[in-house]
Specification:
Strand order of the largest sheet: 3-2-1-4-5
CATH class of one domain: Alpha Beta
Helix content: 40-55%
CATH superfamily of one domain: Ribonuclease H-like superfamily/Ribonuclease H
Largest sheet: 5 strands, mixed
CATH topology of one domain: Nucleotidyltransferase, domain 5
């Protein structure tokens, strides 16, 4: 049986910063919420001054002016989501050094552990005070924040990923991700086993057959004759798989699912063009250097999500600087 530790008697005081000197005496701490921003600065005689602001653009500008009244040079802010971005950019524009420390539980950020303190931290005011205190003693590290031109690229690349993610449920039957209608689900409900006839219904053969069905073709042998020469299945076997019930409601769903897939495909292509343009403006004076050729497997990839100009993108990536080793990004990856 384990022995109980000695019980602490009465109240005891602790002075965690005794013997430490402030390295950032002109530091401010900011806690950012959806509707309110709480800012803490150092006052006279080791006191702190806390003020709450709104989140409109005029409020962000007012925060900068208020910080200058207290001769603040560096600002540490804690936030989840994207609420921090407008304030971060506005304060940087006004000349402040800004450090981002994502809140505990957020997806990234090296300083979130530093912000955890004793149980009972229950208000934005005490959060801002704690951030200001830690920052003034140099106990916070900033999360990696890429340069402005790379931020624009990151935004576009994330948007492209979301477009691809939203497109896939309209073509594939993925109940766990999208329990609604899809091309594959509509075909299966008509007992058109296209996924057994071809390996990829988004490939040339699959798309040709699907669009022929939408154009009114119902003869399974004519549909099977549309297969590519390299298709492994015979025309007879494909014809059996393409014999369906052709119910009107499922044909209607098939039509709309294909239209949604085509819409997202056009959006992805437009996004690729914008990414290509922004890549071209990023460090145009930097040398690309030698680009190693892709392996045979990559060169012959049939991915539907690859960019339209993969070699050009590879050259841009070679030229664009990457985060330094050990740097942790605020959602960069």
């Amino acid at each position: 049986m384990s022995r109980k530790g000695k019980r602490t008697e009465g109240l005891e005081e602790s002075h965690p910063f005794t013997g430490m000197s402030q390295v950032n005496p002109n530091a401010a701490g900011v806690d950012i919420g959806a509707v309110e921003i709480v800012v803490c600065v150092a006052g006279g005689e080791r006191t702190q001054v806390v003020k709450a602001f709104g989140n409109y653009t005029v409020d962000l500008q007012a925060i900068g002016r208020w910080l200058k009244e207290y001769d603040v040079k560096t600002v540490a802010m804690e936030s989840t989501g994207v609420y921090w971005i407008p304030l971060f950019e506005e304060l940087e524009r006004q000349g402040f050094e800004c450090l981002l420390t994502l809140a505990p539980g957020a997806s990234a950020g090296v300083s979130s552990r530093s912000l955890r303190r004793v149980a009972g931290r229950k208000s934005d005011i005490t959060d801002a005070q704690w951030i200001q205190t830690l920052h003034s003693y140099g106990l916070l590290e900033s999360s990696f924040r890429p340069q402005a031109e790379l931020v624009a690229l990151r935004t576009l690349l994330r948007h492209r990923g979301q477009l691809v993610e939203h497109r896939s449920p309209h073509i594939l039957h993925t109940p766990a991700l999208a329990p609604g209608a899809s091309v594959q689900k509509a075909l299966l409900q008509m007992n058109v086993q296209l996924s057994q006839a071809v390996s990829d219904i988004t490939g040339v053969t699959g798309q040709t057959i699907i669009r022929a069905i939408l154009s009114g073709e119902r003869d399974p042998q004519k549909l099977a004759s549309m297969r590519e020469p390299g298709c492994k299945k015979s025309a007879e076997e494909i014809g059996k798989a393409l014999t369906g019930t052709w119910r009107e409601e499922h044909l209607f769903i098939l039509k709309q699912s294909v239209e949604m897939f085509d819409f997202y495909t056009r959006q992805v292509q437009a996004c690729d063009e914008e990414i290509e343009r922004v890549y071209g403006l990023t460090r145009p004076d930097w040398e690309t250097g030698d680009i190693l050729p892709l392996g045979e497997r990559k060169r012959n990839s049939h991915s539907k999500n690859r960019p339209q100009n993969p070699e050009g993108i590879r050259k841009h990536l070679k030229r664009t600087p990457a985060p330094t080793a050990g740097a942790v990004s605020a959602g960069w990856t």
